[in-house]
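Re: that chain you flagged

S.,

Sorry for the slow reply, it's been a week of failed gels. I finally had a moment to sit down with the sequence you sent. For the record, here it is as I used it:
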Amino acid sequence: MDPPRARIETHDMTVVDCDSHVMEPSNLWEEYIDPQFRKQAIRIETIDGNEKLIIADQVVLPGGLAGLGGANLERKDIFSGKYTYADGCPLASYNGNARCDLLDEWRVDKCVVFPTIGILPIPTDDLDLISAYFRAYNNWQADFQMSQPDRIAPIAVVNWRDLSSACAELDHCLKRGFKGLFVPPEVIDGNRPGAEHFDPIWARLEEANLPGCLHVIVRFSGSAVPFSSWHSAQPSLGPTFGFGLGAPGQMMPALSAMILEGLFDRFSALKVAVVESGCGWAGYLIDRLNEKHALLGGLGPKKLTLMPGEYVQRNCYFVAEPDERSIGSMLGLVGQDKILWGSDFPHIDSDLDAANSIRTSVSALPETQQSAVLGANACKLFQL
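Prediction finished late last night. Pasting the structure tokens below so you have them in one place:
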């Protein structure tokens, strides 16, 4: 591993990690799910000496569960069978007080928290069961957050396949102080997330002045698996290909579709945060969509009020990777209030020195821009 970097002082600026995760305790669903669904709780079972993740009574991951987390482990050994799921879950990934100890160590004031197992596929069409899984997670997350309510900002998850259930659960979570909604970057039963079908969800977020968070998901098939033919061809390209291209490969079509479907014309004050895919591609997307829309926009089914890039600049926020070199440029191209940062703790592709890395990355910027990226923008977006 690379040696720790020298600390960069940031003059007591508020610092907010906008992409952190919990590692859900293996018994979360058995303890929190509605009693009638307990036999179908998400769980980890050891079969023939190998840990397997079971969702809806099906094996979703047949091994390598330490790799769901693993920032604290040697990468070369994570998938060797040496480690268990629990080994890849540092205490700060599931204990609120320990999370705050880590934030203190990092000199970070607050963190926005997303699920881990909750971003995996759920292989069932039993919509009641899916809704029960998400309710259980949100109930546990509320308890996790309540241990440190001023420092941990939870993001709700809902069943997008059942609109009435999703709206009811979102209402419940917003009343409990959740700070946004997880938005899967995929086509859901034939509907893109920005489709009018989902307007009741977007209306609630706009009214609450809280963001929908387009966040990377793990899928093995379907619209959220970009470049699948390239990835599956042999010999393997290794995880660099999937981790490197998968995130922007999910986000570019998801965000572009939201814009071109008129989501931001229907909800002009809506805020969408794009999480765990960096920020550097945002400027390219603005230019690319504007150029093609100027030439071809008249052929599309939706007549937009603005140029596509103007919606990006008005409605969209981007969570930078800690080592990105384009942050200063994106502040100019996207907006001074539109760039945030995230560590992705404690996932396998995250760096435990992330907080120091982001300080280094913004250290050459004016102090007002440093403050904006490190935490001021996040405090406004998530109402922290």
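What I noticed first: Residues 1-8 have pLDDT under 50 and may be disordered.

Talk soon,
D.
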